[in-house]
User: What shape does this take?
Amino acid sequence: MELRLTPTHRLRWIRDVFGNSIALVDWLEPASSLTIVNDIVVERLTPFPGREMHDPWRVPFPPQYDSLEIPVTDVYRVPSFPEDALAVRAWLEQAFTGVAADDAEGTMLTLCELVRKTVVYRRRLEKGVQSPALTLRQGSGSCRDLATLMMDAARHLGVSARFASGYFHCSASMSGHASTHAWTEIYLPTLGWRGFDPTIGAAVSLTHVVTGVSSHPRGVMPVAGVFSGNRADFVSMDVTVKTEELPLLASTGA
Assistant: This one.
């Protein structure tokens, strides 16, 4: 991975913070603009770990986590918006009817599809995420809002879930006109973390590239910081995601 920034700076790396690579930057001189270019090469191997790779390996619902894992899994079962508990539970009781007692992964896929059917995707430029109750009340939201709703809904069902941020490899990204994307990851015994994208109502695939995960949406902000100056000094911020498929490299062997 290559990270290029302008203007003059001092880069300090802190790696693997809760599974994420974090870069801290100190600016050494004043500047009128900031440009961050992040180039990374990702190798995706097939076959992608879909359900067919472990079927009929089924995890009961609700999942029973091992006692050794509970100190960790419990962290991911605490709702990010506890004040929205009544609204989320009422929605689940009314709309969620796809529980399969012998298939936790299938149940989570049904929940993912329900969020997709309930909430109309709407691109938002405002910062932060909508609360689950607001998303349900408005019936619309961005990918990060749908991911947050599914994450908290899964937690109310007793399932460990986390927020995933990254991008979607598609025609828009190939042309350089894509933006960042968000979805939900579910932790299941034996199967580990499984990704679900409520924006499209399906499990993640090779087209999903995760760049950060967190127990709360605010934990995966791509860029965070402060600048010295007046509020009026901020003009705009533009983010672009561009992907390309590199030619396969022949293996050199041992």
